[in-house]
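Good day; I would like, with your permission, to put a structural problem before you. A protein sequence and the structure tokens that stand for its backbone fold form the material at issue. The record follows directly beneath this note:
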Amino acid sequence: MRVWEAIASDLAAKIDDGTYPPDGRLPSLDDLVHEYGAARMTIRKAMAHLADRRYVEIISGKGTFATRPDERLPEQPQ
């Protein structure tokens, strides 16, 4: 599993378990870089993956927000 995939999986689990509730704001990019010890590009890729699955909504200038469970797409097998 690639690093960005592991980070995306961890963040998805935190969204699923309510750590980041629906419509709740996720930590900033800089905070996630610090938390995971990963490069900014790696965090961006993980967030883009979550946005593609509709786990998060990225609003420029405002932040990244968790979506409601009924808006999310399941993980596609690779």
